[in-house]
Amino acid sequence: MHIIKHFKLVMHHKWLVFKLCIKVGEPWRGFMHDISKFTPTEFIESAKYYVGTHSPITEAKKVQGYSNAWLHHKGRNKHHAEYWVDEAAPEKTPVIPYPYAVEMICDKIAAGMTYLGDKFTKEYELKYWNKERTKIKINEKNAQFITEVLTRVAKDGIDKTLTKKNMKEIYKKYCE
Ligand SMILES: [Zn+2]
User: Fold this and answer.
1) Is the pTM of the predicted complex or chain greater than 0.90?
2) How confident is the model over 32-56, as a mean pLDDT?
3) What's the rounded Cα separation, in Å, for the pair 118 and 140?
4) Quick one: pLDDT band at residue 2, thresholds 50, 70, 90?
5) Ligand 1 center from residue 110 Cα (angstroms)
6) Strands, DSSP E only, in 8-131?
7) Distances (CA, A) of 54 to 5, 112, 149
8) pLDDT given at position 136
9) Closest by CA position to 57, among listed 48, 47, 69
10) How far is the CA of 172 from the centre of ligand 1 (A)?
11) Which of 4, 97, 101, 118 has the least C-beta neighbours within 10 A?
């Protein structure tokens, strides 16, 4: 069990998401981000599978075949595309509303920063997303929103791209 290390990692990630969320004008989303990671279902499993270089959820899935923490997490956190998937509904992947779509962007970038540290580059998240996009279910409108934001981050950097004005404009362009 890596209780302290896992706690520090979650807090570090939350801090990075919070700072990015403030930049895009969503401080409350940043403050509340991933709060369910402190519930026993998520915390205990993730402390057990702590590795530091990538998500403990990936580790848990490798060993157990599935992750209880992830099933708990994705059902409660609207910044994850998986929250919005219902295979039994006529609309299987409804459009993710603006605040969560923006929180999702901040989460992706902060996760890259958290696990890569010094090796993180502004191009990294777009590369990661291009692979992820082929595997996950997400509304095409949201996928286009993410692609444009991360393409701009790769080109112009985080500071220039992650502004409230840019997020509103790009979301409006694809998702409204
Ligand atoms: Zn999360």
Assistant:
1) yes
2) 95
3) 32
4) very high
5) 11
6) none
7) 13, 9, 23
8) 95
9) 69
10) 24
11) 118
Distance CA 176, CA 172 (A): 5
Q: How far is the CA of 10 from the centre of ligand 1 (A)?
A: 10
User: Cα of 33 to ligand 1 centre, how many Å?
Assistant: 7
**Structure-token pair, residue 84:** 């919005």
Instruction: Give the pLDDT confidence score for residue 52 in this predicted structure.
Output: 85
Number of neighbours of residue 8 by Cβ within 10 angstroms: 12
